[in-house]
Design brief:
Blueprint lengths: L1 E4 L1 H6 L4 H13 L4 E7 L2 E5 L5 E5 L10 E7 L4 E6 L6 E4 L4 E4 L9 E5 L4
Parallel strand pairs: 1-6
Antiparallel strand pairs: 1-9, 2-3, 2-5, 3-4, 5-6, 7-8
């Protein structure tokens, strides 16, 4: 499993990526592929794409008033979670190819690989 983050998430400077990864792995095993991290009352609440609470952490993982998404992807070569701010996400519909594509890149200059797990 590969984890990447966009420049906006990198600027937030979370200091607890080990905790974030453990949450992601546990929720991935529960088939949760879209996660949202947000601060509420000094805690971090993790929800799915429909705002259903999945878990909470008794501390702030990211600075207050910042929502961070973690979105699962599989490009047949790698399974990955992309960490991004909602404002960094945009989807374009390519009518010729009939597919959706994201405006940010999963690798390269706009996203940085965080960690690579094997044996998953």
């Amino acid at each position: 499993m590969v984890f990447v983050m966009t420049p906006g998430v990198e600027r937030l400077e979370s200091q607890d990526w080990e905790l974030i990864h453990s949450i992601i792995i546990r929720l991935y095993r529960d088939n949760e592929y879209f996660l949202s991290f947000k601060e509420k009352g000094g805690k971090t609440i993790v929800t799915d794409g429909n705002e259903n609470e999945l878990c909470s952490v008794d501390k702030m993982i990211f600075p207050p008033k910042n929502k961070v998404w973690a979105i699962y992807g599989d490009d047949q070569q790698f399974q990955y979670y992309s960490f991004l701010l909602p404002e960094e996400y945009s989807v374009n519909f390519d009518s010729d190819k009939r597919k959706f594509s994201t405006i940010y890149e999963i690798a390269g200059s706009t996203a940085r690989q965080l960690l690579f797990f094997t044996g998953f």
